[in-house]
Amino acid sequence: MTMELPRRPDDVWPLLLDFQRIAACIPGCEQVEELAPLAHYKAVMKQKIGPFKLEVPAEIHVDEMLAPSHVLARATGRDKFTGTSFTVKLGVYLRPEPAVLEVQAELSVAGRLASLGYGTIRKKAEENFTLFSQRLQQEVAT
Predict the structure, then answer these.
(1) DSSP string for 86-141
(2) Which of 25, 53, 58, 68 is the most exposed place for a label (fewest CB within 10 A)?
(3) How, if at all, do strands 100-110 and 85-95 pair?
(4) Rounded Cα gap, residues 38 and 86, in angstroms
(5) Could you list the pLDDT tens digit for every one of the 142 residues in the chain?
(6) Coil, strand or helix at 58
(7) If we measure between CA atoms, which residue out of 120, 106, 123 comes closest to residue 52?
(8) What is the CA radius of gyration of the chain?
(9) Is 95 left (phi over 0), alpha (psi -120 to 50) or beta?
């Protein structure tokens, strides 16, 4: 997802460091806690995928940050009920000319739920990514 910025990347950068505002953009993300500033977080991801309701405790690590250029992060978690585990790699890039914000995400899923319906999981992930992108655009515009 790429979107034009209504202001300079330097002005948008503080939003990317505000973990509560970013977490509010992520569908199903709850109970976010900062364990180490700008480095390590935990949260609970709640999702309904088909007949399954997942509640996944997640660890989020910021792998790389270069102000005001980009943030690279990864989240990992495992649902206790289904045994489904996931890894999400996320890259958020601010480009100065033209002023754009680009978000790249990669999802890996393993376990019982993945073997039963990877297509359904992929569709839900795409829906969530679209919703995240829309919410992030709204935050950037304010």
Answers:
(1) EEEEEEEEEETTTTEEEEEEEEEEESHHHHHHHHHHHHHHHHHHHHHHHHHHHHHH
(2) 53
(3) antiparallel
(4) 22
(5) 888 888 889 999 999 899 999 999 999 999 999 999 999 999 999 998 878 888 999 999 999 999 999 999 999 999 988 888 999 999 999 998 889 999 898 989 888 777 767 788 888 888 998 898 889 888 988 8
(6) strand
(7) 120
(8) 15
(9) beta
Return the structure tokens found at 135.
Answer: 């919410």
**Residue 76 in contact with residue 59, Cβ under 8 Å?**
yes
CA distance 106 to 97: 25
- Residue in this structure with the two tokens 């330097």, named with its chain if needed: 10
- Spatial strand order of the sheet with 52-66 comes to 2-4, 100-110, 85-95, 70-78, 52-66, 40-49, 29-36
Q: Looking up tokens 């990992």, which residue turns up?
A: 76
Rounded to whole angstroms, the Cα distance separating 7 from 101 reads 11
Calpha distance 108→92 (Å, rounded): 18
- Structure tokens that stand for 64 in this block: 């790389």
Q: What is the pTM of this model?
A: 0.87
For residue 116, what pLDDT is reported?
67
